[in-house]
Amino acid sequence: MTAPAVKLRITEIFASIQGESTWVGLPTVFVRLTGCPLRCSWCDTAYAFTGGENRSLDEVLAEVARHGLKHVCVTGGEPLSQKGCLPLLSALCDAGYAVSLETSGALDIGAADPRVSRIMDLKAPGSGEVERNLYDNIAQLKADDEVKIVLANADDYAWAKQQIATHRLAERCTVLLSPVAGELDPAQLAEWIVRDRLPVRFQLQLHKILWNDARGR
Ligand SMILES: C[S@@+](CC[C@H](N)C(=O)[O-])C[C@H]1O[C@@H](n2cnc3c(N)ncnc32)[C@H](O)[C@@H]1O
Ligand SMILES: Nc1nc2[nH]cc(C(=O)O)c2c(=O)[nH]1
Ligand code: SF4
Ligand SMILES: [Mg+2]
């Protein structure tokens, strides 16, 4: 009996410079899956909540291959909200790509192919989705995963400090602190991090510096 066809709903596939995580700066193919069960107040990708096109796994792999890059970032929307995301991740790894997964932290990361670098958000209160954090994910984090906390204000920063200490996040993997574009002054966040000697990596969304909020960049 042949395996059922893998279905994927895709918003966009594009080549750009990785703008986030420790992979920042690398030419990368982005595969943006459609749909998300969360509605973070500051989400910069609401256009991926709906729409998209049905694509087969083979069609997606062929389009990724046409870009001729080594790095692939599977994102969304919330990619793990589609069952097809898991076989997509494994097929990309089997094809020899270096794969990262951008995920909200609200869904179980445990079934993702262990070769994938999971860039997992921990939603701060300013997102309006702090209740959705799935704390069981933390014990599953590997050294090549990353936790990203996007901060909208000083309260979010205080919350992040508490989370980092309580869950000893920096002992597990890289912790990224990222300011909400247009809400928290990046320089202010950088000064807090240095002042408090936080064991984190400050991040700015590089692609927004290059191309503002353009889609498909
Ligand atoms: C669009 S989300 C898609 C992946 C997944 N749904 C998630 O939330 O991690 C990709 C990344 O962009 C971040 N992000 C979304 N809107 C942002 C904003 N306005 N400022 C800074 N980061 C933002 C998210 O926190 C997440 O780390
Ligand atoms: N250039 C670029 N880098 C990114 N890294 C993570 C992104 C995302 O939307 O998940 C993203 C994105 O949308 N564009
Ligand atoms: S989980 Fe990700 S895609 Fe969904 S609303 Fe939040 S930032 Fe946007
Ligand atoms: Mg983005």
From TrEMBL:
<dbReference type="InterPro" id="IPR024924">
    <property type="entry name" value="7-CO-7-deazaguanine_synth-like"/>
</dbReference>
<dbReference type="InterPro" id="IPR013785">
    <property type="entry name" value="Aldolase_TIM"/>
</dbReference>
<keyword id="KW-0411">Iron-sulfur</keyword>
<dbReference type="GO" id="GO:0000287">
    <property type="term" value="F:magnesium ion binding"/>
</dbReference>
<dbReference type="InterPro" id="IPR058240">
    <property type="entry name" value="rSAM_sf"/>
</dbReference>
<feature type="domain" description="Radical SAM core">
    <location>
        <begin position="23"/>
        <end position="213"/>
    </location>
</feature>
<feature type="binding site">
    <location>
        <begin position="42"/>
        <end position="44"/>
    </location>
    <ligand>
        <name>S-adenosyl-L-methionine</name>
    </ligand>
</feature>
<feature type="binding site">
    <location>
        <position position="43"/>
    </location>
    <ligand>
        <name>[4Fe-4S] cluster</name>
    </ligand>
</feature>
<comment type="function">
    <text>Catalyzes the complex heterocyclic radical-mediated conversion of 6-carboxy-5,6,7,8-tetrahydropterin (CPH4) to 7-carboxy-7-deazaguanine (CDG), a step common to the biosynthetic pathways of all 7-deazapurine-containing compounds.</text>
</comment>
<keyword id="KW-0456">Lyase</keyword>
<dbReference type="InterPro" id="IPR027621">
    <property type="entry name" value="rSAM_QueE_gams"/>
</dbReference>
<feature type="binding site">
    <location>
        <position position="36"/>
    </location>
    <ligand>
        <name>[4Fe-4S] cluster</name>
    </ligand>
</feature>
<keyword id="KW-0460">Magnesium</keyword>
<comment type="subunit">
    <text>Homodimer.</text>
</comment>
<dbReference type="GO" id="GO:0008616">
    <property type="term" value="P:tRNA queuosine(34) biosynthetic process"/>
</dbReference>
<feature type="binding site">
    <location>
        <begin position="17"/>
        <end position="19"/>
    </location>
    <ligand>
        <name>substrate</name>
    </ligand>
</feature>
<feature type="binding site">
    <location>
        <position position="45"/>
    </location>
    <ligand>
        <name>Mg(2+)</name>
    </ligand>
</feature>
<dbReference type="GO" id="GO:1904047">
    <property type="term" value="F:S-adenosyl-L-methionine binding"/>
</dbReference>
<keyword id="KW-0479">Metal-binding</keyword>
<dbReference type="Pfam" id="PF04055">
    <property type="entry name" value="Radical_SAM"/>
</dbReference>
<feature type="binding site">
    <location>
        <position position="77"/>
    </location>
    <ligand>
        <name>S-adenosyl-L-methionine</name>
    </ligand>
</feature>
<comment type="similarity">
    <text>Belongs to the radical SAM superfamily. 7-carboxy-7-deazaguanine synthase family.</text>
</comment>
<keyword id="KW-0004">4Fe-4S</keyword>
<feature type="binding site">
    <location>
        <position position="32"/>
    </location>
    <ligand>
        <name>substrate</name>
    </ligand>
</feature>
<keyword id="KW-0671">Queuosine biosynthesis</keyword>
<dbReference type="GO" id="GO:0051539">
    <property type="term" value="F:4 iron, 4 sulfur cluster binding"/>
</dbReference>
<protein>
    <recommendedName>
        <fullName>7-carboxy-7-deazaguanine synthase</fullName>
        <ecNumber>4.3.99.3</ecNumber>
    </recommendedName>
</protein>
<feature type="binding site">
    <location>
        <position position="40"/>
    </location>
    <ligand>
        <name>[4Fe-4S] cluster</name>
    </ligand>
</feature>
<keyword id="KW-0949">S-adenosyl-L-methionine</keyword>
<feature type="binding site">
    <location>
        <position position="75"/>
    </location>
    <ligand>
        <name>substrate</name>
    </ligand>
</feature>
<comment type="pathway">
    <text>Purine metabolism; 7-cyano-7-deazaguanine biosynthesis.</text>
</comment>
<dbReference type="GO" id="GO:0016840">
    <property type="term" value="F:carbon-nitrogen lyase activity"/>
</dbReference>
<dbReference type="InterPro" id="IPR007197">
    <property type="entry name" value="rSAM"/>
</dbReference>
<keyword id="KW-0408">Iron</keyword>
